[in-house]
């Protein structure tokens, strides 16, 4: 019987201790509330906003200064995409240097409206031509504007990618 | 600012000199009603803003900070929005009870407010059973909640109302018992008398351990009585959409919302009055200079500082602890709070009998 009473008070003591630990955590939060605010005042800090490294906003095809990309048109990303948001249109063209016919990228069509940012296309790409961009302001007035062509006009394949 | 008796007396004299006694009394009543209604509305607006802001800081967010300086006019804008909204009535609701419920809740909240002493001489209704009156009137609120839940003709509202009934009936016992523990010390139920008895020190210091225990038991039980988190089962958003006021919109919803926050103020004010000396300044023994400085701060400021501190404590509870389940709630009351309260009461009785308090 005495043990039951002792257990009763022990339980109360442990409960109060547990509650105080919780209050300590939130108390620490409010004491540092001014310095450690996690939320950002978005439209105000638009110019200085830094997105996180791993943030997935949209698929981008990387181009260097000479307007060259690394996409060989192999369609691995198109195959990897679970919801068909990537369409690779390619053609066999004559290479101006070697004179041989070769598979080349014509148009990289990307349907942003269907993309779920699953990152599978980036993992599938053998030449690291595409990457997840950080832009998240995708609102447009017409649905057709969400279908994008990622390779810039006149862009070519970067040298040395296929070797 | 220090003593409101002359001001009240001056108004009384002015009115009785210019009007017949009946008219003078009527004007006085109207004045008191207007002041309390204005106070009720302003209090609600301020508390909603403070609650949202403090909650945000606890969760490392910013909270409302757009309308006015630091978002101070956010609640005013919300109030205007609520006033302009369409009051929707459910098709098969019990119209009379549906419209009556918000008024019963507001009535209960306002009536409790009327007996609170804000400063010396600043009390609308000083009756000799003040504490009993508060305990009695504050349970009228549950009638409003039950009516709201029943008349809405909505299963979520009904579940919320029934939970609220079970909760308030249980926790009222603990509120009453913890206040009785303090009445043993004060020797009176009159609120102004309770404050006068703390002129040489607050009861929480003079009453040793039982007073401190009574304070925490009171705060726990009264948070449950006013349906605030962690005991907000009657309106548990994640389970019952909004509980008993699911079907209310516009101004009627605002009444529920306002009453909830004013009840929070009332509970804090009773705690401040009974445990922390109401508007009495903080004094330490015979430190003359220190006591003088403390006396310099007006009593009304003291009262609101204490109330604000207790409200902050209640907000801290709400934004730290998770919501209890209904069986855990009743378990807590009947197996823990109630026996502890009774033990505390006996301990306090022994203490008072032996004269061990200051």
Secondary structure layout plus pairing:
The complex is a heterodimer of chains A (163) and B (358).
Chain A: H1 2-31, E1 58-61, E2 68-69, H2 76-80, E3 86-94, E4 101-111, H3 120-124, E5 130-133, E6 147-149, E7 156-157
Parallel strand pairs in A: 2-7
Antiparallel strand pairs in A: 1-5, 3-4, 4-6
Chain B: H1 5-18, H2 21-58, H3 74-84, H4 95-114, H5 130-138, H6 141-151, H7 155-186, H8 191-196, H9 203-206, H10 208-225, H11 237-240, H12 250-275, H13 288-296, H14 299-318, H15 326-354
Helix pairs in contact in B: 1-2, 2-3, 2-12, 3-12, 4-5, 4-6, 4-12, 6-7, 7-10, 7-15, 10-12, 10-15, 12-14
Tell me about the largest β-sheet of chain A.
3 strands, antiparallel
What do the pLDDT scores of chain A average to? Answer: 86
CATH topology of the largest domain in chain A: Alpha-Beta Plaits
What's the assembly state of these chains? heterodimer
Which architecture of the largest domain in chain A per CATH? 2-Layer Sandwich
Q: What string, H for helix and E for strand, traces the elements of chain B in order?
A: HHHHHHHHHHHHHHH
* Net shape of chain B: globular
Largest interface: A-B, 15 and 15 residues
Low-confidence sequence ranges of chain A: none
Strand content of chain B: under 5%
Q: Domains counted in the coordinates of chain A: how many?
A: 2
Number of helices of chain A: 3
CATH class of the largest domain in chain A: Alpha Beta
